[in-house]
Write a structure and sequence with these properties.
Blueprint: H1 9-20, H2 24-30, H3 41-58, H4 66-81
Amino acid sequence: MARREHPARREAELYFRWLLGDDWEQCLADAGALVPPDDSADALLGACERAIDVAHHRRADLDWSDDRDELLREAWWLLHCS
């Protein structure tokens, strides 16, 4: 049976494209911020934090509040767990 994609996954992809540009997947992969969803919890948490670091570096022009970090965390988890 095919896995149903979470409806917000596309929105998460668009968010990362807006943050990081068209090469967002490669950018996250290069930083080790993409891991298989069945990896350990520690690996997933570490990769999520690396994604935030990448976004902070790539988009230093944005005001990186705790709320924006939390939105990025939610988007990252949607990409990995939906």
